[in-house]
Specification:
The protein has three helices and seven strands; from the N terminus they run H-E-E-H-H-E-E-E-E-E. With 150 residues, it is an alpha+beta fold. Strand 4 (101-110) and strand 5 form a beta hairpin. The radius of gyration is 23 Å and the shape is globular.
Length: 150
């Protein structure tokens, strides 16, 4: 095979390899979901109920959830970490006039991964004008946001 044909073939193969690498990198960037938590609050008769869904992947970045370090979270590991999860969550949320207490836990599988679900209540009423301070992952993940539905 002539040298010019080999160099052309190498250039084409190099271009294909580069295109595949860029496609793979772009696909990975698109597949990464921003860090979001979902809060649902409802008030009725002086009581407010809260459901708070937080991605386990986000919690694992700041708490030692994966106790055995095998990169696989088990129900036992999450169950053992509930007190830490509750403390982190409740310390990062302030709703004027409300002091929430966690009264239940669950796990939920979503399209983007597993979520810890905290259920809580407080003896207070909230509405659209109630001041809320949300600081979950503050100083750790500047892209994180809490999405509240009242």
């Amino acid at each position: 095979m002539p040298a010019s044909t080999r160099s052309e073939r190498a250039a084409v193969l190099g271009g294909i390899a580069l295109a595949l690498a860029l496609t793979a990198a772009a696909g990975g960037a698109q597949a990464h979901k921003a860090s979001d938590a979902y809060l649902f609050m409802a008030s009725d008769g002086g009581q407010t109920r809260l459901r708070w869904d937080i991605a386990l992947r986000d919690l694992d970045a700041v708490l030692p959830l994966d106790a055995d370090g095998d990169r696989q979270l088990t129900w036992g590991e999450v169950r053992h970490a509930w007190p830490q999860i509750d403390a982190l969550a409740l310390s990062s949320l302030a709703v004027a006039g409300c002091r929430f207490s966690v009264d239940g836990h669950a796990l939920e599988q979503r399209n983007d991964g597993a979520y810890a679900v905290l259920r809580a209540h407080a003896a207070c009423s909230v509405n659209a004008a109630t001041p809320v301070r949300y600081e979950l992952f503050h100083g750790v993940d500047p892209t994180h946001r809490g999405l509240l539905r009242l």
